[in-house]
Amino acid sequence: MSYLSGAIALALCLCATLPAHAQDQSNRDPSSDKAKNLDGIVVTARSGVDSRTKAETSYSITTIDEDRLRMQAPTSVTEAMKSVPGFWVEASGGEASGNIRARGIPVDGYGSVTLLEDGVPVQHDPALGYLNADQAFRLDETIERIEVVRGGPSSVFYSNAPAGAINFIPRQVGDTAEGLFKYTVGDYGLNRADVWFGTPVGNGWKLGLGGFYRVDNGIRDPGFHANDGGQFRVNLAKDFEHGRFSIDYKHMDDKVALYLGVPMRTYADGKIKAVPGFDGNYGTLAGPETQHVLMKQANGGLYDFDNTDGTHVKRDQLTLKFDYDLGDDWKLAESMRYSDTHTQRNGMFPNSLSSATQFLASAKKFIPAGAAGLQLRYVDDPTKVFDVGGPNSPGQNGNGLVVIGGLRGVTMPVKEFDNDTRLLRKFEWGGQTHDVTLGYSYSRFDQDFSRYSSTVLLDAQNNAKLLNLVAVNAAGQPLSTLTDHGIYRYGYEWENASGTSTSHAFYLSDEWQVTDQLRIDGGVRWEQVNTRGNTEVKQQLNLGNLPMSQVWTGTGQFVPFDHTFSKLGWTLGANWQFTPHAGLFARWTPTFRLPNLSSYITNPSATPVTQTMKLGEVGYKYTDRQIDLYATAFYTKYNNVGFSNYVFDANNSSSVAQQGYADTKTKGLELEGTWFPTSWFDMQLTATWQDPQYKGLRYTDNVNNGPVLRNFDGNQLIRVPKVSYRVVPGVNLLDGKLRLQVAYEHEGMRYVDTANSVRLPAYGVLSASARYDFSKLCSLYLYADNITNSLGLTEGNPRAGELQNADAGANTFIARPILGRAYRAAIMYRF
User: Which InterPro entries match (predicted)?
Assistant: First the structure.
């Protein structure tokens, strides 16, 4: 606990230097925060001359203010969404590369929700295969609050947002200079500094500066820095007589670890834990021996695989916003963003897991002439023979298991320009008003994509070690090595492609105030996307020096593609505010998601379809001095969801494609509320009950060279629980100077695959946080995450198949648990 002790000492030292008048100021009044959630102004998924509060919206929205955000202290964008009902979030992969499934829509990554920064998309398409929007964005203290819209009109105002929009809203500079500095430490080697400063600079201009830098070893320590880097931003804005102008520049250079599955086992008592010799809470198969590998290519060159990069994103982002009053009640709102993002995404993927005995039996076909058998030996110590185990021995590392790992490197540079223009006017007619917006958005991005991967043989332990496959004589003496320093096959994956996506969209919205209590909101959006590019044809060449020597590479020939899609979507909602404290809302939204560049960039002959969906919701909201409550019933019908799946085949060390299409249907209920029974106690609750089902999911599989019909109609959507909830009780003590709270999260049982053949058990997570205000200017924060060291499994092994998982019925398998217990402390000083 030395990190916590050091943080407390630092806090006392800093606060001792505060001016006397600062230390004497009264601390925050917890009652002042009561019932404020529904009074906040909403800026996400709407447009108009008038402002709207959360209480007045006709759709479901969660607001997370800076106090709540600091007490939760999420370590990633995805982690921040755990307090949002209707979202199933998976943040076990680290600070980036998370997954969100919204209201039963079975799309991984950020394929169903868009990520916004100050109302502008971080990426036009937040789900570009190996480049999800959360990889290109980091939370820091330049962000003041978050607004999360679920369903509703988000698909009218933004592209690729059928299930919602997540808007990170930056701090605004006031009329006086102010700032903050926060330093955070953690028991996993975390050291992080956040800073923000804002000040008027004369002639009406206001300047904001901020960013962060951090380094840590990772909760699952790979033996090198897991996360290393940061970002900074500069914002300059001016309010003038008829409008406002702002320019914002942000630069990010950050490396984050990509955590993947680990070897797990179902034991005799039915509990699922890590295999013997492996730490399920803190272990990772990645380690120093797979940190840096030079992988041979068919052209004679070497591919430099460096796992210390993890997901390494270098991004420059420039944003311009301009609002102007044109006169005669007309207003213009303009926003544009240019970004240049280079992503290198390296990872050590556990493709398959088997006993050493089983693996050696499958490799017998590689025994060379004159050899009597095969052994596994350690690359770093060729005299050390892998213990395959037996009747009286569990085998090497206490488990006798061998992992075929994939060293995968993906390079994705993307340059993007987005523009959104809105013309707004409020009309009065017959005692009623219409707040109308006419908008046009344009987006273009240019993307390159290259991938190269090799397989390695590993043992099953923390920071797994490389193994060689060795041919031996009858006496067990080595004759030849059939692998290359642990490399089982070079080039089992290879891709080279580039493309351009261009989108145009027109939209119209109207907020019709029928009476003082009743408002009807409607909107329509037409969008067109064109994707074009070239994909290099690949071939297999034989390097001739390995048992599995077929290496994928390019032919120099390219296949072009050029496709255009368009679609019309709309939304209609109503809000009945029958008292100042209570109201009802309802909404119906037929919407869509058009095919994207990733649909073609590695498969130019693909024939993806436009995904269409219908979303409905009916909600009740109530607020007073003691309670804020949202209760929403929702319905989602999702059509033409595609399942393109690559299953790793350990017999030939290659990936085999599977494809499927289906519909889904989900009915559910969301609850979100905060209860303030006294000034010293409050409790937050978010809960989701849903029945997510596949409809019409049938496909023909090839089994023993014969067709077999798979029928998964009515099965539960993969990874989506039927029941989940999060409860956060808290107390305010010492006149509000001390805030203590705990958070308990429950995730119900889920499935790995559409066949519902591999179950992920329900689990719970307990965390706690505390804040102590030495004064209004200085605060100490303490955090304890996953206090009970829960081993909740968030996913199985996708490389074993998500249609029908190959791990079905297996006692030992690959799965990804949540991160183990960790402690953090932070000192924040305002000035």
Answer: Beta-barrel_TonB (IPR000531), Beta-barrel_TonB_sf (IPR036942), Plug_dom (IPR012910), Plug_dom_sf (IPR037066), TonB-dep_rcpt-like (IPR039426)
